[in-house]
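Hey, can you fold this?
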Amino acid sequence: MPNHAISPPPVVALPIAGTDATFPVRRVYCIGRNYAAHAIEMGHDPDREPPFFFQKNPNNLDPSGVFPYPPRSDDVHHEAEMIVALKAGGTNIPLDQALDHVFGYGLALDMTRRDLQGQAKKAGRPWEIGKAFERSAPCGPIHPVASVGHPDHGRIELRVNGALRQQGDLNQMIWKVPEMIAYLSQYFDLAAGDVILSGTPSGVGPVAKGDTMEMSIDGLGELRVQVV
């Protein structure tokens, strides 16, 4: 046994739908502005420019159904996204082989301290303070490919207190799932346990304590999260 100086941190693992097994998470990659309408609402040109990614931490993923409103922010936004969970990785993965590396899919919210993210952008600084805070990615279980296939179309939506906030279709993603995997593998050594959040449609907006967020993607079920 390794002689660790301190106790190793626990493995972050997400439930897998229909089984008592779990999916251990290694890294979390998030693609930015992957729906044209969202790019426009954030003040950017939706033309197909090279994709860009930022990261959250594995322990930001939280399947508890509760989102604690974070400190040091007065403007926390919801962003409804699809999880892509990898069962294998590598470098320079060919586009036509990319989907062979996917274990399954799920639902997640990329919660964002928009005010702190905006300050970081203006100063030319990294976004982690706005994106990678504690429990900033409420999520649901992973649905294996064997059960749901590879969703490339289907409605994605988010409601807050019953009111529709975000709606779109997976087929509106500028960079599709195989392209994201192939592109990331040119810059990182992808591996089993890596997770990609595949971007959000337009309609992002603030939440407050007491709100209930309800997200769904056709074929991947629903996710209900209480803001506390």
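Oh, and this one too while you're at it.
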Amino acid sequence: MAVLEKIAASPTEAVLKVEDLHTHFHTPDGVVRAVNGVSFEIRGGETLAVVGESGSGKSATALSILRLLAMPPAKIASGRILYQGRDLLTLPDTEMRGIRGNNISMIFQEPMTSLDPVMTVGKQVAESIRLHQGTSKKEALSRAVTALELVGIPEAAQRAKEYPFQLSGGMRQRIMIAIAMACNPRLLIADEPTTALDVTIQAQILNLMIDLKERMGTAIILITHDLGVVAEMAQRVVVMYAGRMVEESTVDQLFARPMHPYTLGLLGSVPRLYSSLEPDGGAERLQEIRGIVPSMRDDIIGCAFAPRCGFATKRCHEVPPVLEEKQAGHRAACWETQALLDRHG
């Protein structure tokens, strides 16, 4: 398959379905419920953003999909991850290796911990192609150079002979994207792909991902805490808190009318352009979400966000809310959505 070949994927077809996923980590201090009942699906050519604070379970969900967690201490306690009708959690390791990197690829947060420091970047891209596509060494190297050109690396043939330490952070992240996209995956998981980059290079990487998605029809799961990136990149959003899904909707719905207090807090903590030019001459103070994320080693009774929530009632502390549809295409796990909308809607 040529590097530039477009993948046939219907926008109505679910590329991946995650159903009631529970991932636990067994530690000396107890069982950490890192992912607690997560369910979502992503369709062909779609970008689904997964947002939340550090420790909310975003990366653990992604690594569970690809079965990249060390087991033990990790254990996928229950749930299903369906790709083309097959449950990835039941596949033998040999079959899973055939899917990982070929059908489903991942861009990791820090490229220097993922790239081999003693292998040229061209050979690292070619290695993925040879492993999954069964090509000759010469053809794989040729396709690797094409992949580097595709992600906007100048003088790709020369750069392919260089080592990761000879490249800038932005270049290394492009190499990671080239490796991930070299085999034309149907699904790309990007875990904080621009966190360590300055804003100029971040914009270039995001534009590159948008361009590749449009050219190749790849679905993208974008893990981030940056709502600005979400607004630019995604069509739908999943908001996670303490290992649980608390809201899911389209991007437009989420920004226009959030239906969970945690989402409202996240949106309120985003700096506003020109906020310092208020009529009274003072900048509007950023909102903060008081309190801390609860320990996921403890049994959480009721809503996990209740101790930090200004809308919480007695029921919130005693009964866990169900993730239910509040309006068409918009789900939230909150007992007090109406109170939130009455005050902020």
